[in-house]
Write a structure and sequence with these properties.
Pfam family, one: Na_Ca_ex
Keywords: Membrane, Transmembrane, Transmembrane helix
Protein name: Sodium/calcium exchanger membrane region domain-containing protein
Order of helices and strands: HHHEHEHHHHEHEH
GO biological process, one term: transmembrane transport
Largest sheet: 2 strands, antiparallel
CATH class: Mainly Alpha
Helix content: over 70%
Number of strands: 4
Radius of gyration: 17 Å
Membrane topology: Multi-pass membrane protein
Strand order of the largest sheet: 1-4
Strand content: under 5%
CATH superfamily: NCX, central ion-binding region
CATH architecture: Up-down Bundle
Number of domains: 1
Shape: globular
Number of helices: 10
């Protein structure tokens, strides 16, 4: 439940952009969030844990991790197909429903305290979403760069500040582990639900992915790498370094 509520900022921007047929802005927002969340989870949390406790980050083995690989492979196949359309949207929606049912069947909301704050924040974003989209296009026009590049930088940064600040404030190992698992759940939900919304909204013809292919490729790469690094239930310091290399790859593709 917390993970679902946590994707409200991206959900609102995605819905608003899709309703206005700004599919590339919506898609770049989702892909940027997917990449940044995996980097925050494996690199930032891994580094921070090692600095505080001087040992590897033990997070335990979970069947949820396999969904990371499944979704990453689907994103790779979507890139190969060259478009995101209603058919891909339905496939991703099915994966989202399977994952949600699986989580709901064994998880109970233990602490509902963060939900009101997240909902209030979501309402604030909803009312300011038009202004946010206008700001994205204004910056794009001023800098003479595509608006979806601006969306990649702004929305993920705004939506992921909570994850970063929570990690910096936490002092317990269990809290850090729960935060990381929350990031994984949030990412799995956002990468399926939000992409499915864009796909379904774009219709049968869909939208061409050529201009966003670097983002598709790095999303696939970072997702598969995240799965390989955490599948054994432990994040080592070298794993965090390796994921950071993914950031450098992302930045190098960004400059192309």
């Amino acid at each position: 439940m917390i993970a679902l509520v946590s994707i409200i900022p991206e959900l609102i921007v995605t819905l608003e952009a899709s309703l206005r047929s700004n599919y590339y802005v919506a898609l770049s927002t989702v892909l940027g969030s997917v990449i940044s969340l995996y980097v925050i989870g494996v690199s930032f949390y891994g580094f921070l844990y090692f600095l505080r406790w001087r040992r590897d980050f033990s997070i335990g083995r979970r069947s949820d991790y396999f969904f990371i690989l499944i979704i990453s492979l689907l994103m790779g196949l979507m890139g190969i197909s060259g478009s995101l359309n209603v058919y891909w949207g339905l496939v991703l929606l099915a994966v989202f429903l399977v994952f949600s049912v699986k989580k709901a069947s064994k998880n109970v909301l233990r602490d509902p305290k963060p939900i009101p704050a997240l909902l209030i924040g979501g309402l604030a974003i909803w009312f300011s979403s038009q202004w946010l989209l206008q700001g994205i296009f204004s910056i794009s026009s001023s800098l003479h760069i595509p608006p979806y590049y601006v969306a990649i930088l702004i929305v993920p940064l705004m939506s992921n500040l909570q994850e970063i600040s929570s990690a910096l404030r936490s002092r317990g190992e269990t809290v850090m582990r729960d935060l990381l698992l929350g990031i994984i759940n949030e990412n799995l939900m956002s990468s399926t639900l939000l992409l499915s919304i864009i796909g379904i909204a774009s219709g049968i013809e869909g939208i061409a992915l050529t201009s966003l292919m670097p983002l598709i490729e790095i999303s696939f790469f970072v997702g598969v790498l995240a799965y390989l690094l955490i599948m054994n239930g432990e994040i080592k310091l070298q794993d965090s370094v390796l994921m950071m290399v993914g950031v450098l790859v992302f930045l190098s593709l960004f400059r192309v």
